Amino acid sequence: MDFRDKQAIYLQIAEHVSEQVLLNHWPVGDKIPSVRELAAELEVNPNTVMRTYEFLSQQGVIANKRGIGYFPTEEASDRIRSFRREQFLQNDLPQFFKNLTLLGIDLREIETRYDDYVNAISNTQ
What is the pTM assigned to this prediction? Predict the structure, then answer.
């Protein structure tokens, strides 16, 4: 995993874990990698992964079953989408609009490209 400088590593790992849940690579009911396993896989300190898991537990995305490990919650996907949607609308969308304006890109062009993207994805599934 390549880490970015502008965001805390534990939050970047939280994004990774969230993506695995959303992609159903780590489905509800299945145990996710232990703190040590994920730390070794990502080549980070186990304390960083522990901080990630504590953060995701507080968000209601994962739950710890004492002595067994961490599991995605039933509401994990909804909570992740809600949190990420709000982050996108507050942080990314204003920058996106700024770039559209500065570059003179019309929303119809964006809509066409978005439709092409959605069609390409649906053809690969």
Answer: 0.80
